[in-house]
Amino acid sequence: MTDKPINEDFLRLADPMRRELLAHCYRMMGSVHDAEDLVQETYLRAWRAYDNFEGRSSLRTWLYRIATTTCLTALDNRSRRPLPTGLGAPSIEASAPLVQDHEVPWLEPMPDAMAGAGGDDPATIVTSRESIRLALIAALQHLPPRQRAVLILRDVLKWKAAEVAEAVGTSTAAVNSILQRARAQLNEVSPSLDDPVEPLTQEQRAQLDRYVAAFENYDIDSLVDLFTKDAVWEMPPFVGWYQGPETIAELVRTQCPAKAAGDLKLVPIAANGQPAYALYHRQDGVYGQFAIMVVTFSGDRLGHVGMFFEESLFETFGLPAKWEGSETK
Q1: Are the CB atoms for 75 and 29 separated by under 8 Å?
Q2: Distance (Å, whole) CA 66 – CA 270
């Protein structure tokens, strides 16, 4: 048999799994861009080795094993991807000059559509919103790579310990020990893998409407009532992070380039299984790309906002560099 029909068969069977493998690599890497590169490498390795695939496991399991190995190899030469909250204590003075650090490989948000988190296909259960939440991805970055892989394979993908052992090249006993340590570390942060992601309530949707209105109308004082008392605001590549409604409001008032109603436009998107917005800032009458904002609720109030100023994320989310929606004309 020639390679051609074998490889064509591989592409037909493997391509439907691309989004869930992308989500897997994203959980491992904390970067959409890294995940895309590693999925490509995974498919290339699998394509080359497909004629030796004996079918002792499912094709899905085989691909995940290759993807995990590919990610672990990549992580040998890369630093973890933190958020500013993972680097130190909160900033006290919201009006103090902001400090950027472009040397840090910051955590990136992920569009729901890329991971399949917005779909209802049972085959993509591993890309559920619970397993790509921003706080959870940030927490996973604190685990050593092998712990991260074991926890994802066992607690997200629900693999057996023996399957995980084969994937990461260790014994079943070692997998159980690694998993215990990883769970202990993850239990120190919130949310956990066991926390369900519920649909937004009517009150939460109303809070989001008020939140958007406050920004677009430059009604900064109204923001104070929308956050929890210990709410966190962070915005890589700026290293500082800020806690508390009054501090957040002061930060927006003193640091945001928007100074009047209509200076900002918030376009709803979906990221990490959470409400999110693409922010456009008006300059000389044109709304240009500004930041990607991911919002996390704590009860009926906002508990966390992550602002991401990496311009390439607009392309990742399929967004235009300039907003020309009917609302802004």
Answers
A1: yes
A2: 29
At 90, give phi and psi (nearest 5°). -65, 155
Q: From 3.30.390.30, 1.10.1740.10, 1.10.10.10, 3.30.70.260, which CATH number describes the 1-78 domain? A: 1.10.1740.10
pTM of the model: 0.92
Nearest to 262 by CA among 285, 294, 290: 285
Concatenate the DSSP letters of all residues of 86-148 into one string. Answer: GTSSPPS-TTSPP-B-TTS------BHHHHTTT---GGGGGG-GGGG-HHHHHHHTTS-HHHH
Give the span between the Cα atoms of 134 and 274, in whole angstroms: 8
Residue 69 C-alpha from the chain's centroid: 21
Orientation of helix 59-75 relative to helix 32-49, angle to 10°: 130
Diameter of the chain by CA atoms?
Answer: 71
Task: For residues 167 and 153, give the distance between their C-alpha atoms in angstroms, rounded to a whole number.
Answer: 9
E strands in 118-263: 227-234, 241-243
Q: Which residues contact 182 (CB under 8 A, 6 or more apart)?
A: 143, 147, 148, 150, 151
- What whole-number distance in Å separates Cα of residue 304 and Cα of residue 294? 8
**Residue ranges per structural domain of the chain:** 1-78, 202-328
Condensed to tens digits (0 to 9), the pLDDT of residues 260-317 reads 999 999 999 999 999 999 999 999 999 999 999 999 999 999 999 999 999 899 999 9
Q: Return the number of other C-beta atoms located less than 10 Å from residue 268's C-beta.
A: 10
Residue with tokens 């409001």: 249
Are the CB atoms for 286 and 277 separated by under 8 Å? no
Q: Catalogue the E-assigned strands of the chain.
A: 227-234, 241-243, 264-271, 274-283, 286-298, 301-308, 322-323
Identify the weakest region by mean pLDDT among 60-69, 110-119, 163-172, 262-271: 110-119
Class of domain 202-328: alpha beta
Distance CA 282, CA 264 (A): 6
